[in-house]
Amino acid sequence: MGGRRVKDGTLRMLAWARLWSPLSEAPELCAAWEALDLPGRFDAQRVEYWSTFHAGVPQPAVPLQLHALLRCDGGNLREALLRVAGHLEVEMGERRLPPDHLAPVCELFALAIEREETVLIEGLAVRHLEPWVQAALAALPGERVSMRALLQAFAGDAQVAAS
Question: What is each CA distance from 151 to 101, 112, 118, 128, 129, in whole angstroms?
Answer without folding.
Answer: 16, 21, 24, 14, 11
